[in-house]
Amino acid sequence: MSFKSGVLLILASAAAWGLGGVCGQYLYQFHAVTAPWLIAVRQVLAGLIFLGYLLLRGQNIFGVFAQRRDALDQLAFTYLGLLGAQFGFYYTISLCNAATATVLQYTSPVFVMLWMSFKSRRLPEGRELLGIVFALVGVFLISTHGNINNVVLSPEALGMGLISALSLAFYTVQPMRLLKKFSTTLVVGWGQLLSGLFLCIFVNPFEPTGHWDAGALAAMAYLVIGATVVPYSLFLVGLKVVGATKASLISCAEPLASIIAVVLWLKTPLTFVDLTGMACIIITVVLLSLPKK
After folding, report:
1. pLDDT confidence of residue 173
2. According to the model, what pLDDT value does residue 236 have?
3. What is the 3-class SS of 2-15, one letter each residue?
4. How confident is residue 45, by pLDDT bands cut at 50, 70 and 90?
5. DSSP the chain
6. Does pLDDT of 73 surpass 70?
7. Cβ–Cβ under 8 Å, residues 49 and 56
């Protein structure tokens, strides 16, 4: 596969993920579907698809629970990483909009960088400090429109958005040892299924909320397949060709796709200040993704 094809696959996966959040907003906004029900059902179905795929290939899907340390790592990844990232993200959408939720979650590289700095006992420097500044300015502009006395983003939305970013940071760093032993499909599949089953303690997945028609069913199908299984597969193929650093940079297409879709499709009003704040956070991702010289 050519480098250009790899780039196109990464772009396609990023755009597909970005549109997933927009489909979530569509279901909340036009069909009164509640966030906890939507997230629980999406997680369970996606997990079953991932694990079912591995079963069809004859793989042992229970191997990750054979040893105590592996099982504990899987549970930590599931409940401290994936659950917080997914629930926080889709719940934030229900409180504001998909573009804002996506961009807030994209502050996660700052938390990863701060953790790495703490772990190596060194202060952030140069481009890292600049990235932190851009991230803080971006969050400030999105939440206040530049006026500290005029908070336009609710504290709950801002808090949940940052929780999703923290969880995504944990999701990025924590499973490294586990992924050296087991496939990403297995680890993510169990994470999706177990996190969804946990949410089913609080919601009945067999009692759909909201009102459903062909459009709502199509959006739900896209959330499960188009925003989970398909982009994940495309990203992994593209990653092998492009490499991790370039893949991280190209993935900035995700918030861009989300911003374009909420404005053109859902007619969500975003001000110039909103877009400036979002641009600051995207710049942060670019700065922290570039390799050090």
Report:
1. 83
2. 67
3. CHHHHHHHHHHHHH
4. very high
5. --HHHHHHHHHHHHHHHHHHHHHHHHHHHHH---HHHHHHHHHHHHHHHHHHHHHHTT--TTGGGSSHHHHHHHHHIIIIIIHHHHHHHHHHHHHS-HHHHHHHHTTHHHHHHHHHHHHTT----THHHHHHHHHHHHHHHHHHTT-TT---S-HHHHHHHHHHHHHHHHHHHTTHHHHHHS-HHHHHHHHHHHHHHHHTTTS-TTS--S---HHHHHHHHIIIIIIIIHHHHHHHHHHHHH-HHHHHHHTTHHHHHHHHHHHHTS-----HHHHHHHHHHHHHHHHHHSPP-
6. yes
7. no
* CA atoms of 60 and 54, how far apart (whole Å): 8
18 — pLDDT class (breaks 50, 70, 90): confident
Q: What is the pLDDT of residues 231-263, one digit of tens each?
A: 877 876 777 777 766 666 677 788 888 999 999
Give the domain range for residue 277. Answer: 3-289
Q: Pull the structure tokens for residue 60.
A: 């042992």
Beta carbons within 10 angstroms of residue 159's beta carbon: 15
3-state SS class at 105: helix
Can you say how many angstroms the Cα of residue 262 is from the centroid of all Cα atoms in its chain?
17
Amino acid in position 126: G
How is residue 17 written in tokens? 């993920």
Count: domains in the chain: 1
Tokens of 94: 């229900």
Structure-block tokens of residue 182: 């087991």
- 103-112 average pLDDT score: 87
